[in-house]
Design goal:
heterodimer, A: alpha/beta, Nucleotidyltransferase, domain 5, 6-stranded mixed beta sheet, 15 helices, 27 strands, globular, B: alpha/beta, Arginase, Chain A, 2 domains, 8-stranded parallel beta sheet, 7-stranded mixed beta sheet, about 25% strand, binds zinc ion
């Protein structure tokens, strides 16, 4: 049995899946003041009538780190960075303990100028004085040469309970994002680890002794134990849970549009040949871009509880939400009320919806059915426009080779998969607007928990080799090796793969060989004058996102 | 998060799978380290900076601009069409108001490609800026455009394309042709008889530093631009003036390039040369992108930058001041073109052109109508070691009706003569581009 638990902004959902069948599910409002209470209750309820020892795995998607950051409940972090030439690093200031140290590494990973030790010392003294206990240490191009970040870690020493080193979080190039990622990672570290302790405690009390994973924004999981060092990876996993859910519920093979219509927002995702697309660099969070890998999803301000407004005869919907629909006792009419009114759905107190719409129409001096029609048209039109804009952007994604430029296949969705509370109400309107088949999976109400339950692990490594320097580096695995002058891209691909497999074994990440793929691979001859000096080899290897089995 | 003052579009197309040949400076990884630097700096996370995919130029886009012998396909590859398409995309997003400024960071370059094309010269086959300018004129009707070429080599191709066009001001700042390929670009080269002073050459001596370049911008380029009043400024942004460039002898820096860009304030920049791919391009390109976006670039420096070592010699400064006087004088009072020969209503010149990369020799007789009402119908009789006698006729952008009729007549006569293997006919009046 697989247990999936999604602690969302509104609801906490749990499901128990056995042999591709849902054997138990549970849904309750999330208690934001105490996430653990919500989780414990969901765990207890969903497992109350089963043999708890038969649970093979628990996958958990939680908003804990997300909320901590949004609500400013994070710990103070000593951010010590070094940029060298380029954009002024002051622009990336985060928190009250932010220090820029002179020094530089160039794009080849060559150390140009040592870090100024006096500056490091002064920064650390100040932090010690203010009892700063966690640190984020990041230098520009540290993914090419992590030496300076390691030097900083050595200097911090016992002064820290925890340090985040930029190069361990991602192999990608992007200094400002690396700073942001390392900052968040340290900022939520303590809180997240306390949470992990509490989860383990709860499971023990319930008599559940099994592997526990957490869901990441890229739709994959990682072991809870590993996430203790990488808590930043757990932010914004909610949309990924839903997307993985729809993959579990439907056999998606084509280009498709995924719409998750919630109360306040609609999440849009796009699939290419049945596979979800991934953000180019990473997720942006609290207006700070990060290197946290994420599925490509866009959230727009329209949902079932979006307010309907009329201004001089013009009907608009959202982006404001002022409480639930009138059907649920709310103060203003929303899309749900409009759908209730014309009988598309029958949700909650339909009489209240009718009364509310009639009154609003009267006030606006228009016929009620006209108001209802206009508001639904507005909402559906808005969603359609946003989906099309997102598609245009995806299809216009820059490429860097002539081959890709000529072979580039545009994504042309054939189906719309729809889920979320008010999904049923929108189906026929979206069908008309997109002129595509609209599919609503059964069990869509707990799709997110199903997605969490069945999500498989993901992981990514980036290998960078410079044969003229005779060096190979895989930053996030902390691997540095010598390579021979005749090292090839094929060897690099093999090595990236085997290091990834090896790491997964050690960390208890269960993955199968068929899910491991090389996603980027290049080899450039480096020329000095007219002589070749070596090769610049780059390989990206990943365990791709996916689900185990599905719901029959 | 940083916010750009100007909305800026970057068309980045490094063509990682294309090289002239494996050890040629114009090879696959030329922009690899630039990309590394731009990504590590998080350029695309700056609010207001967007990356765009290039268009692919069409055969018509090329035929509107060049006489290609024997045809477009023979003298170009996909890479050229994408590079020119990158420039077109830059123009489109600026002209459509999607962005305030755009930089086409594309390769291969184009500024050595002339009006008539038989092959590759100076790493260039077709002229990206000229194809872009003709696209702009045709689609948006823009009348006065200035191209400022800051590549270290004289842009003899762009000069050739616009030699007779009084509506396109072409200014080239470069290392003195007596010391560098292609050897041309001297002060007295001022444009054809009907476009005198609309071609401006500023040859600078080897070892010119930031100081000398910026002096030339402040004292020559900006005053001339202020006088010409273009609707659009285009920068052919070659980066081979850099002190680390392996094939030139100048002492310009990344900081200098960024300041130059800010002073010039171009609407569109298009990459040209620049072959110090590790030591210069990452920093120069970063500087240009930030300057165009209006983001602080004061901390952009090469790791090995040394002000003292690059300080400009006093003699050089004195020499550049003299060049400035000569150029300004030539712009204001251009002397008559002594080489112009008149046959009837036509000004005629003979040209020998060498395509260094492909080893082709071309002979041309170029004739242009001395018209008072328009740039004048133009035709080129051309033969080369690659192509037998061929012919190109252009009824120019903004042509008057009588030049249009004359162009049609010349085209008809050329066909009837059966003298030419290929005839190219550019008819900007009726937007017709024909090859027979
Ligand atoms: Zn050049
Ligand atoms: Zn005329």
């Amino acid at each position: 049995m697989y247990l999936g638990l999604d602690v969302g902004g509104t609801h906490t959902d749990a499901v128990l899946i056995d042999n591709n069948k849902i054997v138990a599910s549970f849904k309750a409002p999330t208690d934001h003041k105490n996430l653990l209470t919500s989780i414990n209750r969901a765990l207890a309820e969903v497992t109350k009538s089963v043999d708890r020892s038969a649970i093979k795995r628990i996958n958990l998607s939680t908003t804990l780190s997300t909320n901590a950051i949004v609500e400013n409940k994070t710990e103070k972090v000593g951010v010590i960075i070094s940029g060298g030439p380029g954009i002024d690093p002051e622009s990336f200031r985060l928190g009250d303990f932010f220090y820029v140290i002179p020094g530089s590494i160039d794009h080849r990973g060559t150390l140009i100028k040592d870090l100024e030790s006096a500056g490091v010392k002064a920064a650390l003294e100040e932090c010690a004085g203010k009892n700063v206990r966690v640190y984020s240490l990041v230098t520009k191009f540290s993914t090419r040469n992590p030496g300076e970040e390691e030097y900083l870690a050595e200097k911090v020493g016992d002064q820290a309970d925890f340090v985040s080193l930029g190069h361990r979080l991602s192999g990608q190039l992007n200094f400002p994002r690396r700073v942001g990622t390392a900052y968040f990672n340290s900022a939520v570290w303590r809180l997240y680890n306390q949470f992990c302790d509490a989860i383990n405690e709860s499971l023990k009390e319930l008599g559940i002794d099994t592997q526990v994973n957490v869901l990441k924004a890229d739709g994959g999981t990682m072991p809870l134990s590993l996430s203790r060092e990488l808590p930043v990876e757990t932010i914004l996993s909610g949309p990924a849970a839903s997307i993985m859910g729809i993959i579990s519920l439907c056999d998606i093979t084509d280009d498709s549009i995924i719409l998750d219509i919630g109360g306040t927002t609609t999440d849009i995702a796009i699939f290419a040949s049945g596979a979800p697309l991934v953000e180019r660099q990473g997720i942006s969070f609290a207006s700070v871009p990060t290197l946290v890998r994420s599925l490509l999803a866009r959230s727009i301000g329209i949902g079932g509880d979006s307010r309907i407004s009329v201004q001089s005869g013009k009907v608009t919907v959202g982006p404001m939400r002022e409480g639930p629909s009138m059907a649920e006792g709310g103060p203003v009419i929303t899309l749900v009320d409009a759908l209730n009114y014309n009988g598309t759905i029958s949700y909650g107190n339909t009489a209240a919806s009718k009364k509310g719409v009639d009154e609003a129409a009267k006030k606006a001096g228009m016929k009620a059915d006209v108001l209802v029609k206009a508001s639904i048209e507005f909402a559906v039109g808005f969603i359609t426009d946003q989906v099309n804009a997102m598609l245009a952007e995806i299809n216009d994604k820059p490429v860097y080779t002539i081959h890709e430029m000529l072979e580039n296949r545009a994504i042309v969705p054939e189906k719309v998969y729809l889920m979320g509370g008010p999904a049923q109400g929108f189906a026929r309107y979206l069908h008309a607007s997109f002129n595509k088949e609209v599919i609503i999976p059964r069990e869509y109400a707990v799709a997110n928990a199903i997605g969490a339950a069945l999500a498989k692990p993901t992981f990514q490594v980036e290998l960078f080799a410079d044969t003229s320097k005779g060096q190979l580096i895989i930053p996030n695995l902390n691997i540095r090796e010598k390579v021979a002058g005749d090292y090839t891209v094929e060897q690099a691909e093999d090595e990236a793969r085997s290091y990834l497999v090896d790491y997964c074994k050690r960390m208890g990440i269960q993955s199968s060989v068929k899910d491991i793929e090389i996603i980027e691979s290049s080899s450039f001859k480096m020329v000095q004058g007219y002589f070749s000096t070596g090769r610049d080899i780059r390989v990206k290897c990943q365990i791709k996102p996916g689900v185990e089995g599905g719901i029959a | 998060m940083i916010k750009a003052k100007n909305r800026m579009g970057l068309i980045f197309f490094p063509a990682y799978d294309w090289a002239i040949d494996p050890s040629h400076p114009e090879r696959e990884e030329r922009l690899l380290y630039t990309q590394d630097q731009l990504w590590e700096e998080g350029i695309f996370d700056i609010e207001g900076i967007h990356e765009f995919k290039p268009d692919i130029a069409t055969e018509e886009d090329v035929m509107r601009t060049h006489f290609c012998f024997p045809d477009v396909r023979t003298v170009t590859t996909e890479s050229h069409m994408i590079s020119a398409g990158g420039a077109i995309k830059a123009a489109r997003i600026v002209m459509d108001g999607e962005v305030d400024k755009a930089f086409a960071l594309v390769r291969p370059p184009g500024h050595h490609a002339m009006k008539s094309v038989h092959g590759n010269r100076g790493f260039c086959n077709i002229n990206n800026e000229a194809i872009m300018v003709e696209y702009i004129r045709e689609k948006y009707g823009t009348k006065k455009i200035a191209i400022v070429d800051t590549d270290c080599h004289h842009g003899d191709g762009t000069q050739d394309v616009y030699w007779h066009d009084p509506n396109i001001l072409y200014i080239s700042i470069h290392q003195d042709g007596r010391t560098l390929y292609p050897g041309s670009g001297h002060v007295p080269e001022l444009g054809g008889p009907c476009a005198r002073g609309k071609t401006i050459n500023i040859p600078l001596p080897p070892a010119t530093s930031d100081e000398g370049f910026l002096y030339a911008i402040d004292n020559i380029v900006l005053p001339i631009l202020a006088d010409f009043k273009p609707e659009l400024i285009i920068n052919s942004a070659g980066q081979d003036n850099h002190y680390t460039d392996p094939i030139t002898n100048m002492n310009f820096s990344a900081q200098g390039y960024a300041i130059l860009n800010e002073k010039l304030n171009p609407d569109i920049a298009v990459l040209e040369g620049g072959y110090s791919i590790q030591g210069a391009l990452p920093y120069v390109n970063l500087g240009i992108v930030l300057a165009m976006a209006g983001v602080d670039y004061s901390m952009v420096r090469e790791p090995d930058y040394n002000y003292e070592a690059l300080r400009q010699d006093r003699n050089i400064s004195g020499y550049i001041e003299k060049v400035a006087d000569a150029v300004l004088d030539a712009y204001r009072n251009p002397p008559k073109d002594k080489n112009a020969v008149k046959y009837g209503d036509y000004n005629v010149r003979k040209k020998q052109i060498y395509y260094d990369t492909d080893g082709i020799r071309e002979s041309q007789i170029e004739s242009v109508m001395a018209c008072k009402k328009c740039p004048g119908v133009l035709h080129i009789e051309s033969s080369s070691s690659a192509n037998p006698l061929s012919f190109g006729i252009e009824i120019p952008f903004g042509a008057c009706r009588s030049c249009r009729d004359e162009g049609l007549r010349v085209f008809r006569d050329a066909k009837d003569s059966r003298k030419y293997r290929t005839i190219h006919f550019i008819n900007r009046f009726d937007k017709e581009y024909i090859r027979v």
